[in-house]
Design goal:
- The complex is a heterodimer of chains A (111) and B (111).
- Chain A is mostly beta strands and 111 residues long.
- Helices cover 0% and strands 52% of the residues of chain A.
- Chain A is globular and about 35 Å long.
- With 111 residues, chain B is mainly beta.
- In chain B, a hairpin with a 3-residue loop joins β7 and β8.
- In chain B, the strands form two sheets. In chain B, strands 2, 4, 5, 9, 10 and 11 form a six-stranded mixed β-sheet that branches.
- The termini of chain B are far apart.
- Classes of the chains: A mainly beta (111), B mainly beta (111).
- At the A-B interface, β5 and β10 of A face β5 and β9 of B.
Chain lengths: 111, 111
């Protein structure tokens, strides 16, 4: 099993550009989530999904969109990148929302 | 308001010098307390889940314990490879499966 995979590992964007962070898992987990991690702020939940076709907002959803068309994939879209979105983004999956398995992260810089 | 506080922020130990990390929490109806390890540049890696006061879990040199107000991660005779940031998270009854994360304790073990 590859577990949770994320692409790209690094990305640099200009303000106003859009992009999609990819996340996939091969553990047949129903629950998937996106976090951002910033120094002094800890892990903050952006969006999450409890199954295909079902998504909901976390603590910091503004500026991000998600969709869940399959159990395996949960992409995160930045609509119009801003410097405040410079961060490390982690995708995680779990069977029930408890024990979460994290991907390796995407390091995003917005200039 | 649900809250998780970890202490100390940073800890430096000599190899073999045992110590404990603290995770204090305030949550309505604890549904689970989770410990993760995070190495630099990587995603958090699951260590333990504790559900009720008095519960203990062990893995190699690590032992996690839980009371009604806090959890301790005891590290016995640490080795340099135990150096990492240790994260604590809790889920309460009212959080709709969302985890509340602490800021972590950065542990450095010198040889």
């Amino acid at each position: 099993n590859a577990g949770v995979t994320q692409t790209p590992k690094f990305q640099v964007l200009k303000t106003g550009q859009s992009m999609t962070l990819q996340c996939a898992q091969d553990m047949n987990h129903e629950y998937m989530s996106w976090y951002r991690q910033d120094p002094g702020m800890g892990l903050r939940l952006i969006h999450y999904s409890v199954g295909a076709g079902i998504t909901d907002q976390g603590e910091v959803p503004n500026g991000y969109n998600v969709s869940r068309s399959t159990t395996e994939d949960f992409p995160l879209r930045l609509l119009s990148a801003a410097p405040s979105q410079t961060s490390v983004y982690f995708c995680a999956s779990s069977t029930s929302g408890d024990t979460q398995y994290f991907g390796p992260g995407t390091r995003l810089t917005v200039l | 308001e649900d809250q998780v506080t970890q202490s100390p922020e940073a800890l430096r130990l000599q190899e073999g010098e045992s110590s404990s990390l603290n995770c204090s929490y305030t949550v309505s109806g604890l549904r689970g307390l989770f410990w993760y390890r995070q190495d630099p540049g990587k995603g958090p890696e699951f260590l333990f889940t504790l559900y009720s006061a008095g519960e203990e879990k062990e893995k190699e040199r690590l032992k996690a314990t839980l009371t009604k107000k806090e959890s301790f991660l005891h590290i016995t005779a640490p080795k340099p490879e135990d150096s990492a940031t240790y994260l604590c998270a809790v889920r309460g009854a009212g959080n709709n499966r969302k985890l509340i994360w602490g800021l972590g304790t950065s542990l450095a073990v010198n040889p």
